[in-house]
Amino acid sequence: MATRPPIHIFQNAHYAGDDLVPKFRNGEPWKKVLGPVFIYLNSALTGLDCSVLWKEAKEQICQQQRHDCGAAYVGLALPGDAGSWQRECKGYQFWTKTDSEGYFTVNSVGIGDYNLYAWVYGFIGDYKYDDMITISAGECSCRIHN
């Protein structure tokens, strides 16, 4: 008998507490598709010291961190305070990375009202653009000037 994948794990409070569990009003429609998801797996031959797996996993994260160095992450998420995107779990978020000059394009954004947020790996705190950004049907670009 085939087993169903544990999709529910993306919507529970096991690690983060009740703040990250979506709250729904009676009759409120909601659906959300999650993915893509990347899971890094490694394995060791029988009899091999398993600490090799830990070392390899740490090397993998170091490679990822070097790759992310210097770029800011910029995203559109539901309106809220600076940092609220970290706890927001009902709506979609659309993220990208800046180029070396700080320019960015966020693709395939759904219709709606958003705040623009940004953060840089290794720095404490994040940024929120003060103006609301509204994406309408058929809109293909939005220029933001500082």
Automatic annotation (TrEMBL):
Listed GO MF terms: carbohydrate binding
Domain Rhamnogalacturonan lyase: residue ranges: 72-139
Gene3D superfamilies in alphabetical order: Carboxypeptidase-like, regulatory domain
InterPro entries for the chain: Carb-bd-like_fold, Polysacch_Lyase_4, RG-lyase_II
UniProt-listed SUPFAM superfamilies: Starch-binding domain-like
Taxonomic superkingdom: Eukaryota
Transmembrane regions listed in the UniProt entry: none
Protein name: Rhamnogalacturonan lyase domain-containing protein
